Give the backbone structure.
Amino acid sequence: MRKWRVWSIIGVALIFLLAGPLHPADRPYVILISLDGFRWDYLQRGLTPNLERLQREGVSALSLEPVFPTKTFPNHLAIITGMYPENHGIIFNRFRDPFSGRSYSLGDTSAVRDPRWYWGEAFWETAERQGVICASYFWPGSEMRPAYRSPTYFEHYEHNRPYEVRVEGVLKWLQLPEAQRPHFITLYFDAVDSKAHRYGTQSAETDSAIVRVDRMVGRLLDGIAELQLLDQVNVIVVSDHGMLDIHPERVIYLDRILGDTPCEFQQRGPVMMVQPKPGYREEALRKLRAAGRNFRVFTREAVPDYWHFSNHPFISDIVVVAEPGWLLQISGEQVRGKATHGWDNHTISMHGIFVAMGPSFKKGFKTGTLRNIDIYPLLCKILDVKPRQNIDGRLERIEFILR
Ligand code: AMP
Ligand code: ZN
Ligand code: ZN
């Protein structure tokens, strides 16, 4: 009788074990690397042996479609929350709350750590609530207070921190005792974006930055191999957006077009938000539409559906978007740099990369364009975390890349 009982308890426990959630010892690891501004076609320059290894031994997409506007912070938050900027809150790298007068800026340490701007839930927050330890060696939104909104381990952003030190930091986390070891780690490198802004997409400087970040991926893979963790660690390499060369003669001065119609302007470059003073909306729209060459004019309610750029209360009444390669400016302000990004997210030059390798991914699998908002549900699937239900990303659009 007693024996029978013991066996039935063991049997039931076994059924639960087999059908239930991933056993902690079986949960893989994920390292999510962002190579800022790494355009989809840079992988075809023959400069990236390590990323090519990832493509060969794992999954690679033709491109990764960013969200609009194709800027760094809106896209890193879209990747990590699975939400469009109108829902996760970070609509630009810098923007103003017209109700309180406060401003958010990627360079403002206190704003960047202030949770009031972030309306989405980052993957690390979802995961840690479910007992999965996370770490971040830089990611927009990772330094937030209170502590439960940030990963257990994170570093405060330091633009000039040597890349080798960052890789070493990630490898150190992977060497922690299992009970303290993070299962999800982010890593970030800016060089490809920074050099292309300054020298253009075809420059030798951009090429060396591509080589440099590819070497960091190689260094990380070597480190993981040395730790004998290659069969447990998934490495996902993405970029937030692409890049396009600009020309000093392709500049549109919106203040000249609007003349004496009183308006406030936010943003410069590929996108500009125009807020006419009360009573001047129609006049501003009329003038902009009459002049409309090389740019498009929308009321915030009527931007293209696929931008999902209407609902956020800080978006101005009028959104102007230049044609790719063209810039919106205010007279007297200087146009800097040789290349930029921010345009329509359906423009192929704004697309980034997605390559991934590891135990959870198919091998030598090539696919078409993936969307960056689908990465959050993908991470949830890989790490056996229950996703938030209010997200924009869809697992169905991406899970076929998994084994
Ligand atoms: P963008 O203006 O869209 O090209 O933004 C790229 C810049 O964002 C990089 O050159 C970095 O200086 C900055 N950046 C990236 N990640 C962070 C971060 N976590 N905190 C602060 N700044 C960042
Ligand atoms: Zn960027
Ligand atoms: Zn940039």
Remarks:
- DSSP finds twelve helices and 20 strands in the chain.
- The mean pLDDT is 95.
- The first strand starts at residue 29 and ends at 35.
